[in-house]
TrEMBL record:
Binds 1 FMN per subunit. Its cofactor is Mg(2+); FMN. It catalyses: (R)-4'-phosphopantothenate + L-cysteine + CTP = N-[(R)-4-phosphopantothenoyl]-L-cysteine + CMP + diphosphate + H(+); N-[(R)-4-phosphopantothenoyl]-L-cysteine + H(+) = (R)-4'-phosphopantetheine + CO2. Transmembrane segments: none annotated. One of its GO terms (molecular function) is phosphopantothenate--cysteine ligase activity. Signal peptide: none annotated. This is Coenzyme A biosynthesis bifunctional protein CoaBC. Its EC number is 4.1.1.36, 6.3.2.5. Residues 11-226 are annotated as: Phosphopantothenate--cysteine ligase. It comes from the Bacteria. Pathway: Cofactor biosynthesis; coenzyme A biosynthesis; CoA from (R)-pantothenate: step 2/5; Cofactor biosynthesis; coenzyme A biosynthesis; CoA from (R)-pantothenate: step 3/5. Residues 6-216 form the DNA/pantothenate metabolism flavoprotein C-terminal domain. Keywords: Decarboxylase, Flavoprotein, FMN, Ligase, Lyase, Magnesium, Metal-binding, Multifunctional enzyme.
Length: 226
């Protein structure tokens, strides 16, 4: 929408898992479907934002009216995110792999005669959200992180917001019995400097719409640019 409440706002959204290759046919991954991130990108665009969606490997269709940048690994996602700066709002929904195999074998790793399993050495991936929050010259005006937890959700999430340096943090419980990770619905806490809100369980589209409304409120109250 040309004249929606978010027209003029540049948004960057990360979504999906990352795949971290072990060899040409194997990778480490996680259960993220990308649904929440895609829904947020669409909700922001529906309010008029100019949206770049940096997506790990997912099976979702490319949303209309959004710049979609596909990537596979955390390092590729980091590079695309940094290329997409500057922006006004960054929403880091992606379930970026925390670690990757130290080396990617150039050929398929073979079983050996003694059937011993290969040792996997992992090294940490860059933390894209933390890097955005600490960016010296192009920190987005509003940075929203996500926290997927399986226990003590609120305490972990509040600590994470401060540790990462993001403005808002959306926390959810991804314990298997919730059916949230990879599912259609979400139940979140929104943690801001003003406190914690507990949102009822709703569809990922509805979470996205509510969050986009909150971003619109922030955008309309922003201080004038110098
Ligand atoms: O530390 P943790 O992975 O729980 O933090 C989750 C938040 O940080 C999410 O917003 C996720 O998109 C972001 N993140 C990231 N890069 C990483 C790890 C997490 O952007 N390497």
């Amino acid at each position: 929408r040309e004249n929606g409440p978010l027209s003029g706002l540049r948004a960057l959204v990360t979504a999906g898992p990352t795949h971290e290759p072990l060899d040409p046919v194997r990778y480490l991954a996680n259960r993220s479907s990308g649904r929440q991130g895609y829904a947020i990108a669409q909700a922001l665009a529906a309010l008029g934002a100019d949206v770049t969606l940096v997506s790990g490997p997912v099976t979702l269709a490319a949303p209309a009216a959004i710049r979609l940048v596909r990537c596979e690994t955390a390092q590729e996602m980091q590079a695309h995110v940094m290329q997409a700066l500057p922006c006004d709002v960054a929403v880091c929904t992606a379930a970026v792999a925390d670690w990757r195999p130290e080396t990617e074998a150039s050929q398929k790793i073979k079983k050996t005669a003694d059937m011993r399993a290969p040792a996997l050495t992992l090294v940490p991936n860059p933390d894209i959200l933390a890097q955005l929050c600490g960016h010296a010259t192009a920190r987005p005006g509003l940075v929203i992180g996500f926290a997927a937890e399986t226990e003590t959700v609120e305490a972990h999430a509040q600590a994470k917001r401060l540790r990462k340096g993001c403005d808002w943090l959306v926390a959810n419980d991804v314990s298997p019995q919730t059916g949230i990770m990879g599912g259609e619905e979400n139940e979140v806490l929104l943690i801001t400097p003003d406190g914690t809100e507990t949102w009822p369980r709703m569809s990922k589209q509805e979470v996205a719409a509510q969050l986009a409304e909150r971003v619109a409120r922030w955008w309309s109250a922003r201080p004038a640019r110098p």
